[in-house]
Amino acid sequence: MKKIGLVVKSDPKAKRKADEFEKWLRSRKIEVIRKKTTAPGQKNAAETLPPAPSDLAFIFVLGGDGTFLSAVRWIGNQDIPVVGIKFGEVGFLAEIAEESLFAAAEKVFNGDFSLKSRMRLSVKVIRQAETLTQETVLNDVVINRGALARLAHIETYIDDHYLTTYSADGLIVATPTGSTAYSLAAGGPVIHPAVPGIILTPICPFTLTNRPLIVPESANIKIRLIKGSSGIILTFDGQKGLEINDQDEIMIQKGRHPLNLITLPDRHYFDILKNKLKWSGGRA
Predict the structure, then answer these.
(1) DSSP 8-state code for residue 99
(2) Residue 37 and residue 62: Cα distance in Å, rounded?
(3) Same domain, yes or no, for 268 and 238?
C-alpha cells in the first residue's frame, strides 16, 4: 500500500476538495497522512507537529505558495517528492490547476512525471559562539527592519571577503526558486531554477548603486548588523521570524538537501512564468 502526505490550505474550498481527494485515494487503497494547517495569523502548526513520516511516497499540497512552503518545512531534510495544486492567486510553486487534481494524481501514481531538484539554503544564526537557530529555506531568508526602526546597516561578506554594508530597509538572500517571490517584488532578477546561483537583493537601498547581485551557489555568505542596530527581524521563507541584533552572525550557504519537485509532462517553466507574470505574446 502506498502512503502519501496531504497538506491543505486553511480554506473551505480547498478543504472540500481535499476531503473528496482523500476519499478517492482511500478507495484505491492508498493511505493518507494529512498534516494539520492553521489559518493566517495563527501559530504555524509545522512548528509543533513532528516531521513528515519518512515512508511517504509523495506529498500533495492543495493551496498557494504559502501552503507549499509550509509543506516543505514539514518535510525538513527528507527527499520526499512534492507536487503543488493551486488554490491561491499568484504563485509559482503550486503549478497544477485544481480542476486537474485527479488527472495529475493518476499520472503521478503511474510514474508519468519527472523530478526537478530545487536548491535550498542552509541558514545558521550564531550568537556569542553558540548556534541560536538553524533553518533550511526553499525561497529566501530576509533581513527586514521593523515598522519604526531606522535603516538597517548590513555588513555582508562573501567567502570571508568583505563585500559591502547595505544601508536599506532590508536584504533578501534568495535561491533561483525564490527569485520569483519577494526578491522579484524588490527589483531582483528572475533566475531559472536550474541556474546555479544565490541572489542578494537589497530592499529600498539608500545608495542607488547597491543593485541585486548573483553569486555562485558555492559561496558562503556571512551577514552582520552594525553596532547599535535594533528592531531588525530575520525571516525564513516567510514562515518563521527571529529578532536579531549586532551580536549575531548569519551564515548562509547552499543546503545539502534539495527539494524534489514533481513536474508533469505538460507543464513547462517558461509557460508558467509567462502566465504568472502576464507577459504578452502567444505560443510559438
Answers:
(1) G
(2) 11
(3) no
Q: Counting every residue, how long is the chain?
A: 284
In this structure, are 172 and 272 located in the same domain? no
* Whole-number CA gyration radius for the chain: 20
> What is the domain-level CATH number for residue 139?
2.60.200.30
Alpha-carbon span 14 to 20, nearest angstrom:
10
Q: How far is CA 148 from CA 125, 169, 223, 234, 249, in A?
A: 24, 11, 22, 16, 23
Cell of 132: 541560536
**50 is a domain residue:** yes
Catalytic residue among 65, 140, 237, 248: 65
pLDDT in tens, the chain (284 residues): 689 999 999 989 999 999 999 999 999 999 999 997 765 555 554 455 688 999 999 999 999 999 999 999 999 999 999 999 998 666 788 888 899 999 999 999 999 999 999 999 999 999 999 999 999 999 999 999 877 778 899 999 999 999 999 999 999 999 999 999 999 999 999 999 999 999 999 999 998 889 999 999 999 999 999 998 888 999 999 999 999 999 999 999 999 999 999 999 888 888 888 888 888 765 54
Cα–Cα distance, 280 to 282 (Å, whole number):
7
Residue 271 designated active-site: no
pTM greater than 0.85 (yes/no): yes
Q: How far apart are CA 130 and CA 121, in angstroms?
A: 20
